[in-house]
Structures are given as structure tokens and as C-alpha cells.
Amino acid sequence: MAGSFTCLYYHLVFSTRNRQPLLTPDVAPRIHEYLGGIISRRKGIPIMIDGAEDHVHILTSLDKQDNVVAALGKIKANSSKWIHETFPQLGEFWWQEGYGAFTVSVTGVERVKAYIAGQQEHHRRVTFQEEFLAFLERHQVLYDPLTIWL
């Protein structure tokens, strides 16, 4: 074979530190756009980015040379720096240390896009913690219930 080919989609989920509701409607669209720009500069494709006031969901593909850990580290670090420079009123802003990264099949991309687009409505009924635990259980990810929210 003359080349390497990948089709890897990721649903990335991470929250603000202590799940502070800082991603308000006046700043969230610009932050989401900036997150997409970071992904694009890393040769990934940001497909859908949205969330609630205390967390973000990103549906993306990454460059075949990239990996999830490195990409998330850069996404979170670069966006935190930009947020502090652009929105001085968010001086307390930081992303939570951890994250969730879940693979998505090509046949599931549209379903995940719809899910991410419906975040505002979804979180009128479900907290971030409930949502995240459901993701972990659905994807059969082991976790320690005593330390997951530290």
C-alpha cells in the first residue's frame, strides 16, 4: 500500500475546573471557535463543538500523526491562555485536569453531532456529572467513584 489512511473520530468531553459555569452565552461561541482553530492548526477536523456553561463537547478527527493525549493537552493549554488574554473577566478560568475521549464510528457521526447540538436542552434535565458517568458506563470505562470528581 502506498500510503497510510485513517478514519478516526473522537468525542472529547472536558469541564471547567470544579465545573464552574463560566462558558456563558456571551463567551462560549468564541471559545468554541478558538478550540476548533487549535484542532485545525494541528491538521485535525473540528466537526462540532458545543456544550454547557461548565463543560464542552468536541466531535473531531485528528491528524493521523497526532494522538488524543497530545491534542487534548494543547487544546486545553492554548485555549486557557487565550481565554485569559481575551476575557480578563474570566481570570478564574481553568479547564479541569481530566477529560473523556470516546471513539465514534463513521456511522455514528451524525448521531453525535445531533447530541452535541442539543446540549442546552439536554442539560436542563441532566447534570454534567450524570452525563459523564453515563458515558463511562456506556463505553465500559472503569473508574473509581470515590475519586472521579477530585
Question: In words, what does this structure look like?
Answer:
With 150 residues, the chain is of the alpha+beta class. It has a single domain, classed as Alpha-Beta Plaits (2-Layer Sandwich). Helix content is 38%, strand content 18%. It is built from 5 helices and 4 strands, in the order βαββαβααα. It has helices at 28-41, 68-86, 109-117, 119-122, 128-138; strands at 9-15, 45-52, 55-61, 100-104. Strands 2-3-1-4 form a 4-stranded antiparallel beta sheet, with helices on both faces. Strand 2 and strand 3 (55-61) form a beta hairpin. Helix 1 (28-41) packs across helix 2 (68-86). The longest helix has 19 residues, at 68-86. It is globular. The termini are far apart. The model has no long low-confidence stretch (mean pLDDT 95).
- CATH architecture call: 2-Layer Sandwich
Query: From the structure provided, what is the oligomeric state, counting identical versus distinct chains?
Result: single chain
According to CATH, the fold-level topology is: Alpha-Beta Plaits
Q: Radius of gyration from the CA trace?
A: 15 Å
Residue ranges: pLDDT <50 for 5 or more in a row?
none
SS-derived structural category: alpha+beta
Mean pLDDT: 95
CATH class: Alpha Beta
Tally of DSSP β-strands: 4
